[in-house]
Input
Amino acid sequence: MRDNSAPSHSTKMKGQICVITGATSGIGRATALQLGRMGANLLLVGRNEKAGRSVVAQIAKRPGSGSVEFLRADISSLADVHRVAEELRSRCPAIDVLVNNAGARFSNYQTSADGIELTFATNHLGHFLLTALLLDRLLAAPGARVITVGSGAHGNSLGYNWSSQPSNYDRKAAYGKSKLANIMFAYELARRLRGTAVTSNAVDPGGVATKLGLNNGVIPWIRHIVFYGLKRELQSPMRAAETIVYLASSPQVAAVTGKYFHKLHEIRSSQFSCDVEAAGRLWEHSVRLSRLDAGMGDAWKYFCHTAS
Output
C-alpha cells in the first residue's frame, strides 16, 4: 500500500534551502526535480558542469520553482569540498536540508587527490567533511535535516578495517564498505546532535536504473541493471528519490533521527552498522583523514572524539 504521506508536488518547501550532492544525474537529479517542484531553493553540487546547467535550466523553467544554482565540485577532493563549502556558506546563513547523495563505484583500485581509496573518499569521506563544514548553517535553521544515501549493499560489510589496499581490492567489497560507512555516519551524527534541532537519517534507495558504475564500462553496468531487473526490483530514479524527498519535506518525520528508511518506511540496517563503538572508531578515522580540528569553529564540539 502506498503511504499517503509521500510528498506531493506542492509549495510545502517554499523558502527552504536544500543542498544536494551528485545532483546532475540519477537519484540526485530526481530529488532536485521533485524538491524544485515543491518550491525549494536548490543548491546543486556535482562534477559535470554541462549536466549541472541542464538540470538548472529544467528546474528554473517550471512554474512555482524556487531559485536553483549549480556549484561544481569533486566530492572526493578535500580541497574541492572546502571550496564548495565556503561558496555555500557565503550564500546561506542557514541550510534546511543537506542530501549527501553523490556516489561512485570503481572496478580498479584508485586513489583520490589526497591519496585515499577513491570509493571511500567519494561516497563517505567527502560527505563527512561537507557536513562538518556546513554544520553551523544547519544548526542555524529552525529544524534542519541531513539525509545520507546508503545502500542495501552494506549488509555483508564489516568495518574493522576501512582502508582498501591495491593488493586485495574488490570493487563490491569497497562499495559495500563505503555504504556501511554512510549509514554508520548518519547514526553517529544523530547521536552527536541530540538536543539540537538537526536530524540525521539514512536511506536505502534500492535497485535503481542510473549510470552508477557506467564509468567502469558498459558490460558491468548492464550486469547491474539485469541483476535488479530479474529480481523485479529495478526502479526509476524518480521512484527511488521519493523516500529522500519524504525525509526532506514531510512533517511526519520532522523529529525522527538516527533511522534508516526504504520505500517511505523505517527498516533495520545490518547488525554491524548499529555497533556504537565501531561507529566511534569510524568517526575518529574520518576526522583524521579529513584533517578536521578546532579551527572549524564552534561546530568542532560535535566532531571532536569526546562528543559521543
User: Anything to note?
Assistant: The first helix runs from residue 26 to 37.
